[in-house]
Write a structure and sequence with these properties.
four-stranded parallel beta sheet, globular, 9 helices, four-stranded antiparallel beta sheet
Amino acid sequence: MTKKIGLLFGMEDTFPWALIDEINGRGAGVEAAPVKVSYIRDSGPYGYDLILDRISHEVPFYRTFLKCAAATGTTIFSSPFWSAADDKFFNNIVAMKLGVAVPRTVLLPHKQHPAGTSDKSFRNMDMVSWDEVFEYLGFPIFMKPAHGGGWKDVYKVDDRDQFFGAYDQTRDLTMMAQEAIDFTEYYRCYVLGRSRVHIMRYDPKVPFHERYVLNAPETEPGLHERIHRDCLALCEALGYDMNTVEFAVRDGIPYAIDFMNSAPDADLHSIGRDNFDWVVRNMADVLIENLERPRRIELTGNWPAVMQGETAVKKPAAAKRPSPTHQPKPKAKSKSGAAAPSRTPARRPEK
């Protein structure tokens, strides 16, 4: 019986069709096609052996459809259960447990009340000591949402005034503040099926169409091995079957900057022909292999066992976190000579 692979996608036009053609051209007894869905009956059926999800993070209806399909036997790449629950700050905590270096990061209170809440909803919220935040992170600082991607609502700030100016624009988002890594090398890596890694030199400082570096110098073997190992460890722990992991290298240590991309950009015109062909070919391999050796329903990766110390993970030497070079200004003295309190509310008063 022919097995069916469905691709669930939105606006992208190159990767899904190329992948469908690659799978169907293999003659492996597998049929690939775009997913078709209208309404969903509670009695099913869902019609696919495996679905590659590229869009449910933006369409809640699709997310529910995928969870129901998974519950009735369809394999979903990546798990719709965990991807509905994770966030970048929590993933950083998992990364540290794995021995993956990450920048110093803090989670910030909402600047504005989320819909349906009021001051009374926040009686457990204490005042934020901004001096402590800035001392821990140092400047410059990147601010980014704990949920989401695509460089939306990301700010780089160089001082307190810029920080609060950016914070004032973050609405009710859950924001992270993160130390900026002054890097000498930067890498973006595709990770497919938690087994295949494609390491690419990348330059986030240049225009978008020039970021994938052509004819890049060879990466030092030890660094290459560390990046490869960290990619697999992160995706196995988080249960991502398709992901991009980005590393900024400082003092020879790769810091994982961004690794929550279960539907990463794979457009031919963005990533270039060589990278595109690698992704299409290897994604087809991974999907067909999974149909041959299907896995049981999976709610998440192995991070619960990792966090409990139950899974043996070969860790590289832990990256030492040096103190930031930024030094906070001395605290002002009160009239009594004692240091004046530095705590200020999370929601700065309007001027």
